[in-house]
Predict the structure.
Amino acid sequence: MLLAIDIGNTNIVVGGIANDQIVFEARIATDPIKTSDQYAAEIKSILALFQTDLKEIDDSIISSVVPPVFNSVRTGIIKLTHKEPIVVGPGIKTGLNIQMDDPASVGSDLIVAAVAAVQDYQPPLIIIDMGTATTVCAIGRGNTYLGGVVIPGIRVSADSLTHSTALLHTLCVYLLQEQNLHATARQLFIHRNTLVYRLQRIRTLLQLDLDDAAVRNVLRTGCILLEYYQGAF
C-alpha cells in the first residue's frame, strides 16, 4: 500500500492507495507547532482507525506547500515506516511536460492536481482547486503544463471583506452583473462614483486584478456559493 500525504495550509490529507484504488482518506489539522512525534502518532492513529497495519505500507509520498510543516511530517513518517518517503518536487518523474522558464518554481500541489487530472481526462484541461488558496492551471495536449495562477481562496477573500459587508455585497453584485457599472450601481442604489470607489477598495484589499477573466470567474463562483449558502444578493 502507498501512504499518500498532502500537506496543505489548513489540512493534511492522509490517504492509503492499493491496486490503484483509494482504500482510505482522512484529514488532520496543519499545525507548524506540532513535532514529528505528534504527527507520527496522529498518522498511526489514522491507520489504526482504518484497520491498516504499518507492515502493509510499502512506500509513502509527500506533497507539501507548507515548508515549516514538511520536515516534521517527513520525519514522523520515517519513524513510522523506517523508509524515506518520496517527495513531490524537482527531479521526480510525473509524466508532465512543464513548459515554464523555471519548472522547479511550480508548486507541488499544482503538479499533483495536474497528474491526477490527466489520468481521468483528456487534455487540454483547465484545473481549478479551491482550497485555502485557489489555484488555476492549464494543461495542453501531450500533457503539457502551460502555466497557472494562485489567488486567495474564497474563504480568505470573504474574510478580508466581512469587516465591511458593503464591499462583499458590492463585489458579488458587480460580478453577477458582468462588470456593468450602471446596472450594478442601480441594483445597489448608490451613485456610480461610490461604486468606483468601493471597487478600488476591493482591489486594494484582495490584491487581485478584477480585469483578469480567470480571476473574475473564480470570484464569481465564490459569490454564487455564498449566495446559495447565505441568501441572495
Notes: The longest strand covers residues 21-29.
